Amino acid sequence: MEKLSRLQFEQLIKGARVLASGSRGPQVYLTVDNKVVKLFRQKGLLTSNRLWPYALRFRRNAERLKALGFHSVTVEKVAQCHALNLHLAVYPLLPGQTIRELAIAPRTNRALERLPAYLCALHHKGVYYKALHLGQILVQADGSFALIDIHSSKFRATPISVNNRISNFFNTLRYAEDHASLTRYGLTRFFGDYLQGCQLGEKHKAKLLSKLRNSRSFPELKQALGDL
Question: Could you tell me if 67 and 161 lie in one domain?
Answer without folding.
Answer: no
